Amino acid sequence: MNKFESRYAQSPKEVKxxxxxxxxxxxxIENVFEPNQVNLTLSHFDRYIVGGAMPVDQKISLPNPDDxxxxxxxxxxxxxxxxxxxxxxxxxxxxxxxxxYKEALYIGQGTKEVTFESADAGQPTKLYINSAxxxxxxxxxKVSKAExxxxxxxxxxxxxxxIINKLLVNSVLPTCQLQMGxxxxxxxxxxxxxxxxxxxxxxxxYFYFEVPQGQSVCHFMGQPQETRHIWMQNDQAVISPNWxxxxxxGTSNYTFIWGMAGENLDYGDMDHCAITDxx
Length: 279
Known about the structure:
The chain is mainly β. The chain is 5% helix and 43% strand. It has two helices and 24 strands. It is globular.
């Protein structure tokens, strides 16, 4: 049975008063994947949806939750998918796409039927999903890692040496407001998005994976001078408000997927926070 959850937005004033349990309840998405179902969480920050589809031994469909008040899920939305499991087959209005590990698929607004299946039930796929409201129909398109815009940042000395793969971004293909990519940390590096930043013009969500067994990631959020943290495990996601930093440090290196939506498609549109100014 598919799951859908809706979460309200919170102001910095509210978040300052939250204890550990409240922070986790409002921002952490613990169960992204469950066998043979689609789990979706809608955030009222920019009406962004975060979720996962995990078909094992059957084909499953993208649901249309009542909360969307739409004839079908993508009537007024666009969708981004990145495969973080076994080989997948995604069908969008009859067009079949095969996705290997870490390959992405953009599905445009107006697509009526989307289904997911694993190429091999013995190695089930895990399809990480992000969706944002859309005002225009752009073509559905697969993007491989080889087609991504790649940026290398950080250094081993500051423990933030990382490779940023911009997969579903405006420099690679047209979208309405959805942007998605994947950052891979090098061995020995643990910090992501450090120095930290905020961007009031769009919210963001992080999904952490390739976290080794027995290891964790501490995700940092909040205003730069009023930070909070959430301990996260493998295959979990977290919602980042527009006004919040979004950064993390792991007990090992790991990979994470970032997704954004808002009124600006400029990847460099951000307000940087000096490391020594964080509190």
